[in-house]
Design a protein that fits this description.
The protein is an alpha/beta fold and 516 residues long. It is 57% helix and 9% strand. It is built from 23 helices and 8 strands. The chain has helices spanning 3-6, 19-31, 48-60, 76-82, 100-108, 132-143, 163-166, 179-192, 199-209, 213-227, 233-240, 245-256, 260-273, 277-297, 304-323, 326-361, 368-383, 392-398, 403-409, 428-431, 436-448, 468-489, 491-500; strands spanning 37-41, 89-93, 120-125, 149-155, 170-173, 413-418, 421-426, 455-460. A 5-stranded parallel sheet has the order 2-3-4-1-5, with helices on one face. The chain is extended and about 95 Å long. The relative contact order is 0.06.
Amino acid sequence: MALANKYRPNVFSEVIGQDNVVNALKNIIKNQNFHNGYIFSGTRGVGKTTLGRLFAKSLNCPNYDIEKGETCNVCSVCEEVQTNSHLDLIEIDAASRTGVDDMRDLLDSVQYRPSSGKFKIYLIDEVHMLSIQSFNALLKTLEEPPSHVIFIMATTESHKIPKTINSRCLQFNLKLVSDELIATNLSEVLSKEKVSTDKKSIDLIVELAKGSVRDSLTLADQAISHCDGNLTEEEVSKLHGVLDISSTTRLFELILADSTEDVITELERYRNLDVNYEILFDRALKLLHEKIIESVKSDSGLDQEINLFYQFFSNGLMDAKQTDNYKENFDIASLRCLSFKKKDDRKVKENVETRDISEKKVPKQLPKVAAAKIDSTEDKKKRHIKLEPKNWLNIFDNLDLKGPSRALFSNLQLNAVIDKKVIFQGSDIFTDNINEKNKSDLILSMKNNGYAISEIEIKKENITQTTPSLEWQKKRNLEIKDFKNQVLKSSLVSNLNDKYNANIIDKNIEVIDHEE
């Protein structure tokens, strides 16, 4: 028998990692405060169906111990539930019975009283797979349910259940089980099975299980068969294509060292070993997360480079899940880190060269009179740009306006200036959100720049010319276009094209903003 079935909990106390849900179910039975619908949601292998069965058994067990919160497990009801033969527990796999006719046939039996227990219980697994028509048929019964009927529904995708169903049920969200609890449970199971193992092999199986108790037992079953009853880290790693953690650390050391050839060699090594790229993604994100925490704790603050690398791998993992291609997306995420590392190195070099030239040509300290004259000229130039629509973009760039006020006014067009009154126009999506505080912020900011404005009028009219926001976007688009051209002409892309016989084109390049 499979370990997941052999060691499936038969009482509430055997359920691990779901104490809050277990306590809630015990209190419901103790207080006799029953609803007609319950939804258990959560990822695979965390105990949704198991808790549903235990709850059903507890509701009908004649010897249920209220103080201990456990069934007797010796009566006919308990034995029949455990062998899936109890007449008052009807289990339905919604994935195979999605049609409305199936649901109607099922609901026709609702009117009949339970044969032996107190309740007739319908346990619907993967309930989100039901059709809309089936949900509508179920809704009618949930609205006016017989007192002897209880629906227990399990789902991995609760967001797909209609709100009309959700609102009529008690919902319990089952969380991922902690690695420590899974490791302890797995050690106990393997000990009972008389399988020799070590801590590292158990830790590896726990990592692969990702919070699922059932998956940990299934993976252990596979490992026992592969290792002939003697689990070792090396054999478990070979079975599941998992590298040691130091390999992931080495990859980032090579990226940070700007070693292109070594990074590509390391990626090729992963490919030849046929590694589990999903685990590689998880380890990369975990490693980067730890480095970000370390940088925040240190005096230097957040390391923007590591933060950017985390975004690359996070986006890569999302793309991998959508395309089901983890290998290529992991390679691309790694090469993105490398390409931006090179870009940053070039930027530092250019800054150093510029500073060297500046230091040679410009005196270290200007005479005080000359410096004052320059400051005065710049200040005068800034303050004496005439306030009129054609100059608004330049004026707005120099304002010290911040936050929502800047965001809102940047999307408006300056229409006219009449004495100390300025008139703006723009879409109602922006004009409707401008309040008196926003206006006061703009008036104060303009006064600080030498413009004596005392009144602001806002008109709900579509813009006919341009706004600061539109101009910024135009400039940004030109910068992106120029950057993509630089990337396409770079030696890195040229080497990648030659090495992989590829052809990277403009639309394949994604620009991700980050703080310098």
